[in-house]
Design goal:
Blueprint: E1 4-7, E2 10-13, E3 18-24, E4 32-39, E5 47-53, E6 59-61, E7 69-74, E8 79-84, E9 93-101, E10 108-109, E11 113-118
Parallel strand pairs: 2-11
Antiparallel strand pairs: 1-3, 3-8, 4-5, 4-9, 5-6, 7-8, 9-10, 9-11
């Protein structure tokens, strides 16, 4: 069973930084990968931000965060991180961690962590 738990969200001012963490307390599977997504208020769709493969550590980024944020992993802890810098009010959202098989939709989600960026 895959169990994901995010942490590290909070309130930060424009231009500030945060580091999100997600730990999988369950198992991995073939072609395992983990990623970060967010969902802004007002019913917007969940948006892909970044992902990392477990074998090889290849990273993938959305254009909106490329060069600004960094995803990393700790294989021993089954954890991933998202280093977010230069935060803007538009980054306000609930941030979710997902686990999936590469090339397939996300199968497992965490409960999310709120990030609020004040202007």
């Amino acid at each position: 069973q895959v169990q994901l738990e995010e942490s590290g969200g909070g309130l930060v001012q424009t231009g500030g930084s945060l580091r999100l963490s997600c730990v999988n307390s369950g198992r991995t599977f073939s072609n395992y990968a983990m990623g970060w997504y967010r969902q802004a208020p007002a019913g917007k769709e969940r948006e892909f931000l970044a992902a990392i493969s477990w074998t090889g550590g290849r990273t993938y980024y959305a254009d909106s965060v490329k060069g600004r944020w960094t995803i990393s992993r700790d294989s021993a802890k089954l954890a991933i991180y998202l280093e977010m810098s230069d935060l803007k009010p538009d980054d306000t959202a609930v941030y979710y961690c997902g686990a999936f098989e590469l090339g397939a939709p996300v199968e497992h989600w965490g409960h999310g962590t709120q990030v609020t960026v004040s202007s």
